[in-house]
């Protein structure tokens, strides 16, 4: 009944109060102890069946744990399935926790790319910027391509500086894709 009435929304393994302000109101009305017990119970219930939801609840029980990268990976999956609001919640939760900086960069590029691919360009730019400079050449190319796409939509520019900076250190196939995408945006803008 709650789902049919629209009070609760479901996306994959996630079910939650649909209205964020109502969800925040209910959450803030609970005592810290009650919230902790609810997270413990939810982590236990979701442990085997829904790993991302399990991680989410566990992160409230063990802040500053080592699940940050896995939470950001889950955020990328959520963004890819069309749930940017949940993706942001998982990503921000994951960013609070530790983890290898290179893996964190990879996860943030995947998240930013997924957001851009699903039309959430500003959010995608945010997480791509937070990824920083990534060392792996293919990943650097993927980040640049997503940044190029986002800048073309948000800022209405083709970021030539980004393309020129990334080209020398990426594989030839990735360089070709990046140059084709930049040319496509220039053609659409009537610049070529």
Q: What is the count of DSSP helices, taking H or I runs of 4+ residues?
A: 10
Indicate the overall shape. elongated
Protein structure class: mainly alpha
Radius of gyration: 19 Å
The biggest beta sheet reads:
2 strands, antiparallel
Could you explain the architecture of this structure?
Helix 5 (84-95) runs antiparallel to helix 6 (101-117). With 192 residues, this protein is mainly alpha-helical. 32% of the residues are buried. Strands 1-2 form a two-stranded antiparallel ribbon. It has ten helices and two strands; from the N terminus they run E-E-H-H-H-H-H-H-H-H-H-H.
Write a concise synopsis of the structure shown.
The protein is built from ten helices and two strands, in the order E-E-H-H-H-H-H-H-H-H-H-H. With 192 residues, it is mostly helical.
Could you outline the blueprint of secondary structure elements for this entry?
Blueprint: E1 8-11, E2 14-17, H1 20-29, H2 32-46, H3 51-61, H4 68-80, H5 84-95, H6 101-117, H7 121-131, H8 137-154, H9 160-166, H10 172-188
Antiparallel strand pairs: 1-2
Helix pairs in contact: 2-3, 3-4, 4-5, 4-6, 5-6, 6-7, 6-8, 7-8, 8-10
């Amino acid at each position: 009944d709650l789902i049919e009435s629209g009070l609760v929304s479901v996306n994959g393994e996630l079910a939650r109060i649909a209205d964020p302000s109502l969800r925040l109101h209910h959450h803030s009305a609970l005592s810290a102890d009650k919230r902790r017990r609810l997270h413990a119970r939810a982590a236990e219930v979701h442990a085997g069946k829904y790993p991302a939801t399990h991680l989410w609840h566990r992160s409230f029980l063990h802040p500053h744990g080592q699940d940050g990268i896995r939470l950001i990976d889950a955020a990328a999956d959520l963004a890819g399935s069309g749930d940017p609001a949940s993706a942001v919640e998982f990503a921000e939760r994951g960013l609070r926790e530790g983890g290898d900086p290179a893996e964190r960069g990879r996860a943030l590029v995947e998240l930013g790319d997924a957001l851009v691919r699903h039309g959430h360009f500003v959010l995608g730019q945010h997480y791509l910027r937070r990824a920083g400079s990534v060392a792996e050449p293919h990943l650097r190319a993927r980040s640049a391509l997503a940044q190029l796409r986002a800048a073309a939509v948000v800022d209405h520019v083709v970021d030539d500086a980004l393309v020129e900076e990334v080209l020398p250190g990426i594989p030839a196939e990735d360089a070709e894709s990046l140059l084709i995408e930049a040319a496509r945006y220039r053609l659409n803008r009537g610049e070529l």
